[in-house]
């Protein structure tokens, strides 16, 4: 799909809002589910969640990337950042830290209905890896759904599908074992190698 993927900016906030308000879980969650404690989220509201995400947009490092189509509309979203920024994730017993090494987490995808089944999630994932590398992240982690096990509903796929991550070079490091789970999930990781550039040699000075 022909889109431009870039960090979320205040100028793009109205268009992202339109994407979230189109329906489904984003309209209520506003991608705050993983960023606060479970008790705080249960006592929150869509309005408070919206304000919470909006407050993160003005940071030096935004909370995610957006896919903008040729008409200037935001048609995709991926949320990511250092794992420690996601309080619910840090407290999770079924998604515990694999080890003590620093890692960034990808926690959510949103794709407009008009843009689905066009490979946009894969494009967002690729861009997320490049962005995280540029920000100094040594590795990425995510918690996708295995669509080959059971019958996941569209509402459960917001963390992405396992097949998408495997195609992007991620490896399964742990199965998510939860008695309340309705779908099979896994913890996947990918090491982000720094790109090395050869410095151009200065021209030889003529004697």
Tell me the name of the CATH homologous superfamily: Gcn5-related N-acetyltransferase (GNAT)
In the sheet with the most strands, the strands line up as 1-2-3-4-5-7-6
Instruction: Report the end-to-end length measured between terminal Cα atoms.
Output: 55 Å
State the helicity in percent bands: 25-40%
Rough outline: globular
Order of helices and strands: EHHHHEEHEHEHEE
Description of the molecule:
The chain is an alpha+beta fold and 207 residues long. It has one domain (4-191): Aminopeptidase (3-Layer(aba) Sandwich). It is 26% helix and 21% strand. It has helices at 13-20, 26-29, 38-42, 46-57, 87-90, 120-134, 162-167, and strands at 4-7, 64-68, 74-82, 104-111, 139-142, 171-176, 185-191. Strands 1-2-3-4-5-7-6 form a 7-stranded mixed beta sheet, sandwiched between helices. Strand 4, helix 6 (120-134) and strand 5 (139-142) form a beta-alpha-beta unit. The chain is globular, with a radius of gyration of 18 Å. Mean pLDDT is 91; it is low at 196-207.
């Amino acid at each position: 799909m022909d889109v431009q993927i870039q960090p979320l900016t205040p100028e793009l906030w109205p268009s992202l809002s339109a994407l979230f308000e189109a329906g489904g879980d984003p309209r209520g969650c506003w991608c705050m589910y993983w960023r606060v404690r479970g008790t705080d989220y249960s006592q929150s509201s869509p309005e408070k969640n919206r304000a919470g995400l909006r407050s993160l947009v003005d940071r030096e490092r935004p909370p995610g990337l957006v896919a903008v189509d040729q008409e200037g509309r935001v048609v995709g979203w991926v949320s990511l950042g250092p794992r420690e920024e996601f309080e619910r994730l840090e407290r999770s017993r079924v998604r515990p830290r694999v080890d003590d090494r620093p890692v960034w987490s990808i926690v959510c995808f949103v794709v407009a209905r008009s843009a689905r089944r066009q490979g946009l999630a894969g494009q967002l994932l690729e861009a997320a890896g490049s962005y995280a590398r540029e920000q100094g992240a040594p590795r990425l982690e995510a918690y996708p759904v295995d669509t080959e096990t059971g019958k996941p509903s569209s509402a459960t796929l917001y963390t992405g599908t396992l097949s998408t991550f495997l195609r992007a070079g991620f490896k399964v490091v742990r199965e998510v074992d939860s008695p309340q789970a309705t779908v099979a999930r896994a913890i996947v990781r990918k090491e982000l190698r720094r790109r090395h550039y050869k410095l151009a040699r200065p021209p030889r000075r003529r004697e």
